[in-house]
Amino acid sequence: MLSKKLLREFYLKTLKGFRENKLTTFPFYIFFFFFLFFFFSLFLILPLTPFEKKPSIYREGLWEEVKILTPYFTTNDSERSISNLIFPSLFEIYNGKLISKYLKKYLLNQEKNELQIELDDNLFFANGEKITTEDIRFSLEFAKKYSPSELNRFLNNLEFKVLNEKQGIFYLNKPDNYFLYRLVYLKIFPVKIFSSYSPDFINLEIARFGSGAFVFKEIKNEGRKILILEKNKYFKEKVYLKEIHFYFFKDQREALDAFFKKEIDGLAGINYFHLPPGFKKRVNIYEILMPRVIGIFLNKERIKDENVFFFLDSKINRKDLIKKVLENKAEESKGIFSLSIRKILGLDELKEGTKKDVEKKELNLTLILPNSFFYPDIARYLKENLGINFKIVSSDELNNIIRKKDYDGLLYGINYGYPPNLAYFFSLGGINLNNFENKILEKEFFDLRDNPQKDIFKAQGEIEELILNQKANIFLANPYFFYIIDKKFKGFDLNFIIDPTERFIKIYNLH
After folding, report:
1. pLDDT tens digits, 135-170
2. CATH topology of domain 88-203
3. CATH 3.30.70.100 is the classification of domain 292-479
4. Tens digits of per-residue pLDDT, 274-288?
5. How many Å apart are CA 287 and CA 238, to the nearest integer?
6. Rounded to whole angstroms, how far apart are CA atoms 414 and 391?
7. Are 416 and 291 in contact (CB under 8 A)?
């Protein structure tokens, strides 16, 4: 604070200036007084408002081993998550919208089965090598050779012609309305680097040369294994973080304990119900929608009585189940698509189907379900409220049971993708959960894929109605995917992802 002596001196000089009519010097005293006042006040103000340092490293916990980061060779979700970050696809889905980190523009000609593309300016891999259409051509050939069978069938129907360094054309040999969206799975690689690593494509060193916001730096062992990614200095968008550190734990429980102790900053796919109430004050809990649904799927070869469907559909209280089992962390699904998913797809609200009240009776029905996530809790709820028997099996057992159609019904969850690919779950060419041939539905699936006049989004409503009319599926809920991040980090804005491994699509905005 200013001393009394200084204030008195200022007062006397000002008063003298008035008396002697020396107003020319008066403004100087005013300025001098306020300058001193401001200067000394800074010492009082600054300690109360310290500069907030932005975090430069984000630490996330994983509980799956990471040995391979090369796309198409990864073996679990943790590997795929990091791989997707390092090697972005030609197209990506960001909150339901198609985007590209590579393209300045593109033009889809559905009638000619072709896609013209033009690369953006100043695109580089992390080694400074310029990205050209030759890298696109090589990436397609690489994917044809090494991608999983389901994706491979599409890619082998696709060719790419280089026009010049920045422009090229994709050609389909036969129609596919999902053409554009299947390119979400086409990764882009530097032809010169990958050629030099051949055939050692699973070498972690290859992950130094991606085009994403971060690339592989090193693996450390400091009491536990830490995989470190560093900022790609050639990435075209602003990147706030310097590094991302992935800490490895033996299981979810150990990862959560580390989160409680502030040893890490984020966890994905964790069960919300494990978090203590007070803990929520220091974290942001993101409830993210995914294109999926939990339901009961009846085998129509075994359950021929439609009254079983009507009983389950009318007696299961979805709202109560979501409240008591999922703690209100899910959207109700009376059809395949929950309300928010319907909005993303541009579909109208689901119309109420035919209701038939069936008296409670003893059900000759056993539901098969996996021994993971919330399925056992849902099964116990159904047993307690409706007397439905159930059997819990491992994931491998469940896959065999579905393949052999050895079940009355399944308590199961499906991730149908974006745009939805329901044919995989309900057609003869897929896993056919209802074990039923519906010729009208089969034709719809065929047209949806091959008829360029079909709108792949609007047609989903018609297909959903046909599936509901089979009276063999009781859809229950769409549970949220949880991502928890310490509140000191800002910039995460995802509310919809097609897959948990896509959560890093805008990681460069985190700060």
Report:
1. 999 999 999 999 998 899 999 999 999 999 999 999
2. Dipeptide-binding Protein; domain 1 (3.90.76)
3. no
4. 677 777 788 999 999
5. 26
6. 19
7. yes
